Inverse folding.
């Protein structure tokens, strides 16, 4: 119980830190020009997080045909991929690592290897481990 609670606190605080560091909500409000509805964005993130916490904790599941899940799965993959790329770009992880380990000449193959590894791991998980 203590380990689960500590893990929840660490993931939750990392999520909040990510929202704060990237100024996600103020930028979203600015892009949509919905200044008076900023509390709606905050509430949506809060209720979405609570819903998915409960869905995971209580093992909620809905039986839908695979074709109905194709479009949401594509958008979810795009969101996660772009979010990870944006986070990497903001934190400048790749340039720092390539400079520290003298990988400058191997930067493009390194990026391709990272992308192919992520895609391969996702496909193995989706198609073989959890079909």
């Amino acid at each position: 119980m203590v380990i689960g609670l500590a893990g929840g606190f660490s993931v939750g605080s990392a999520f909040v830190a990510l929202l704060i560091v990237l100024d996600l909500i103020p930028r979203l409000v600015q892009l949509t020009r919905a200044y008076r509805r900023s509390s709606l964005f905050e509430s949506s993130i809060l209720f979405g997080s609570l819903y998915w916490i409960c869905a995971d904790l209580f093992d909620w599941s809905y039986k839908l045909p695979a074709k109905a899940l194709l479009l949401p799965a594509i958008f979810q993959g795009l969101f996660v991929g772009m979010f990870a790329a944006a986070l990497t770009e903001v934190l400048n992880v790749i340039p720092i690592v390539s400079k520290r380990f003298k990988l400058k000449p191997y930067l493009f193959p390194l990026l391709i290897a990272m992308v192919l590894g992520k895609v391969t791991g996702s496909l193995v998980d989706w198609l073989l481990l959890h079909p």
Summary: Residues 77 and 122 are 10 Å apart (CA to CA). DSSP finds six helices and no strands in the chain. The chain has a mean pLDDT of 81.
